[in-house]
Amino acid sequence: MRHTIQRLTLQRVNSLGITLALLAGLLLTGCAGDKSILDPAGQAARDVVMIWWVMLGFGTVVLVLVTAFWLYTFKRKEVTRTPADERKIARRWIIGGGIVLPVASITALLAFGVPTGQRLLPLPLADPPEVIEVIGHQWWWEVRYPGAEGGEVVTANQLIMPAGEPVDFHVTGADVIHAFWVPRLGGKIDMVPGRVNKIRLEADEPAVFGAQCAEFCGAQHAQMQLYVEAVERDDYETWLAARQTEQLAALAVNDQQHDSAREAFMTHCASCHRVAGLSSGREGPDLSDLGSRTSLGAGIMAMEEGAVTRWLQHHQDLKPGNKMPPHDDIETATLESLGAWLETLTP
Amino acid sequence: MTTISREATPEGDNIKGPHQLHSDLHEIWGNPRGLQALTIVNHTTLGLRFMVTGMVFFLIGGLLAMLVRTQLALPDQDFMSPDIYNQVTTMHGTVMMFLFAIPMLEGLAIYMIPKMIGARDLVCPRLTSLGYWCYLFGGIILSFSLVLEMAPDSGWFMYTPLSSSEYSPGLGSDFWLLGITFVEISALSAGVELVVSILRTRTQGMALHKMPLFAWYILAMALMIVVGFPPLILGSILLELERAVGMPFFEVAGGGDPILWQHLFWLFGHPEVYIIFLPAAGIVSTLIPVFAGRPIVGYGWVVFAIAVTGFISFGLWVHHMFTVGIPQLAQAFFSAASMLVAVPTAIQVFVWLATLWLGKPKMKLPMLWIMGFLIIFVCGGLTGVMLALVPFNWQVHDTHFVVAHMHYVLVGGMFFPLIAGLYYWLPLFSGRMPSETLGKWGFWLTFLGFNGTFLIMHWTGLLGMPRRVYSYETGMGWDIFNLLSSMSSFIMSAGIAMVLLDFALHFRFGKPAKHNPWNADTLEWANNMPPSAYNFVSLPNVETRHPLWDNPDLPRTMAEGQHSLAVATHGRREMWGTDPITGKVREIIHLPGNSWWPLFAAMALAVVCISLLTRLYPLAGIAVIIAGLFLLRWSWENGSHPKAAPDAEVAPGDPPLHSRTMDGPGLWAMSITLIANGSFFLSYLFGWFYLWTVSPEWRMPETSPLSLVGLILAGVVLAAGAAILEKLVRGLRQGKDAGLAVGMYSISALGFVQVAITLWVLLSADLAVTETAHDAIIMVGLAYALLHGGLGAVLVLLQGLRVGYGYVGAHAPFEPAVVAQWWRYNLVTFWILVGALAVLPRVIGS
Amino acid sequence: MATLMQRLHLTHPLHFVIGLTLWCIWFVAVYGGHAVACSVAPPAPEQGVFTLVSAMLLAVSIAAIALLAALTVGCCRMAKRQVGRLRFNASVSAGLYLFSTLGVVFAAMPIIGIPPCL
Where are the transmembrane segments (chain C) (predicted)? Predict the structure, then answer.
């Protein structure tokens, strides 16, 4: 849907020229990007957008009026006044514009703004919300579901959350400071090593949202992205159930045609990556359900046939500086078989 | 001591004509040429050097900005690798903030302040020179990292742990930490002497409430530098220690906390924004009355607004940290305080508006830039209030919205007024007028280009584009806006190029300016254009806020030597030392002449900086000692030293020389320096208590490793030394100097004993400084005490020697009083340290 | 009270900075005290705003408001009695004390509405 709108806009650029494009840009792409604050998909984000439009309107009025008065002083005719009159006029300007205007504005702003912030706080609820832990690494996301029935589920670089109910995100950083931000759902929160920060987000209905590391975290800060998928509660439960260790382990080892790939995995990958049932490396992202994810490399390329192999071969060009060593020393055939096997890990 | 007795009379010395007076003064004040030009300490020359150097760094910073905009013009560009891009953005911010904005405005203040307050130079001329060299060398070292492709790349805010040795193993962070600390010496020295100059060297009669508003703004800026920079210096020292030695101040595993860095950084970083804005607002408040042709309305309101801004800006730092997970209530305090700062800003905007309203404003070239300032700055202020609102901040924090806001505030709030001011004062610098045509083109291109770049960027941010990304993929709806921003940024740079071209060309082709070309009211326009090194032939009695409006004849009578201190045959550089509140004359300040010592000291410090960078620690140690020796040698040439004022004779009726009183500006300079030192010390205490209470994995031993007996003994010895010093100073105040030398030597001995005991306590504590943050921070505290104790002992020792040489004594009692302040400060901080580090942990326990 | 105000030399320009310094001290005390209280003895979130921490923060703020308000009144009275420089000093000081008082009121407002330590 988003891409259709995108393409439409681009066509207009070609046909109608810059002016229309700008307008179209503002109206269409403006609100349609999957990281746009202006296209909220949850109440917290919606409140903020509301506040933004009000502040924008008010701010524009103030700016225009102040500028107009300033410019007018250069045009108006000279008037002679007594010093007492001058003092009175000056005092009116200063007290009216310098004190009453800002004090009234900021009081109103605080009165409306502070309650809005409460929505993002993990206040105690009668029905404790779902908890999802997100841990930032240079430059990927570890995601844990401690509340899953049957035991904690661990995955990476994809986040599935139940829609239509509040979800508490407990976030921290494994190395440097990152920040967790799903623009369409609400504000961001820093992922600080040694601390666990909490933020409560809620998605109105099932959809996919873009997320992004928002705190500068080094060379690949730009490419530390994530897709957050909100699904119905039942689908969420099913999804979690399919990722219990036993299921994943069974998936990883139960066919014979990928034996050589598994062997290569154990030689080259296992010390850093976990595939349930095979290895328990924690340096890099968990790969147990890699094939089922929508993207690779922390949200930077779409998962499609052959994508894993391409990533394994060219990851230092696709995401220069990432912490996985280059695989020049591994034969192409081996990488291809590894890629093919990893793509089958679809619970 | 009446006013009249000091005004020259035709029968007096000043029977000489103006030309003779000029050459007499020029003999003493004039600048040498050739290699000797490196020794110049004159504020006019150094102010210009600061500004020209600042402009060079501005061009470097601007070039880096253009690289950034080129990279972001289109999606998925690989014009620069991520590595290089991060170096470029980090250096763009660093260069613009530390090497352009602050030094540029300091340079303007250094140039302008003495001229505006009717003085002949700043009060510590050699310090101006030291400041300049530190700035130049620090700036060169920092910029050189770009050439080596080793520039810092963890952002201009250097957040740990990204900037720590584990995640930034190269030299980049070290370049930043050492280079910036070096440059900050410059900012601090300018801060100290601007405060003292404004408070103590205004011309006769210029009471505090009569001084030009610009001086109020600079006073506030300078005080803010004095209080605001030390937290960052402390932070930089701690981080460099962590990187070089492995002391884990910011490392969670060792009991440190990365958030401590953020606190120290923003404790500096937020006031810094206002340190940049206030002088610029000072320019606006100076220009608007001149072009409106009437005094500013509400002088008192402006003073009020300046004071409020100066203080409140220290209570806002956490608004840069709303997303780090601070309790909601604490965020609300900072949110409210951040919004409060809108009040003084709005007051100033409406004072300016009312002044224009009641005057007859003329739209000359400088006013065009002021208009640009107004529109951009009000816009930046409004988005600032929006950002102070926590929920909105959580959304747009670290997006391009903030980039846009920040540039509106900094470019609008600093660059536009700066250019207005430079256009306004150009005739003073050069004696020539700029070109209106080129100037107008420059303005409109800059103004439109700026808004094209950054107004759009608000929108890009709202569409979710995060800051500090080296690239972005297409399809997010950001492409067209980034392209427009990039195109506009090139228009803006064309505008700025035009302005700089206008500046450069006018020195050669500008029309000669007539005297006081804008019909201004302040004293700087009583100078020659361009000014003489001594500024004024004679120093007038000024009891009005608008000396040149109330007495248009003043420049002529000043130049003819009809006012005070028009004598120069004594060979001293003299000006008034006046009462800080009333402006009554208290003494004659004699200033030191040109000197090599500031340059030598700065060169030694540069060696320290480079050897720390290259990890040649023994060399760094030697260079520190050499720098210290140069500085002490510099201080030797004071008082009645042959190179200072061996002869104390003054004209009949004139007050004494400051070195022959107990009330010289040096006392004030020491007090202000100690305020900076105190700010450093408080930041240290903050760090200690912060880590103790908040750090996630803080480990404190069951019993304090420090020997309480040893520390108390050291404290008692220190107190004994301080008490004897106080007694000696009291004696000097009464004109008694019997046993002064012996007294000084024995105090020095006590000082060294205290240092020895403290050192023993430190060594016997057996601290594992690389293991725990607890031990590391205790180490830093004791090192602070040792340094202060050692310096105190050395200073007193030198005083003893100076008594022997006859430079200090009942006839010249000034210096011991200055040193006594250091001892007082040291005594207080030492006992606080004992309490905080050794007593409290025993009382409260871990 | 009146003699006390006399002793304070309310026409001295030092009063330009005292009020705001008190504001800063109050601010640091409240911010720091709040941080320490929340790390040492955080109240249960269910208590809402009716906690000992909030009460103490409020008490400190009210004390600061009272002190600053008294100084505001003192400076105002002094300003009316003086002319020229002394009047200028006293009235700017009065304004700054007033701002500091209201600054405390404004920044302390959230204590009433927001539960601490969340």
Answer: 12-32, 52-73, 94-114
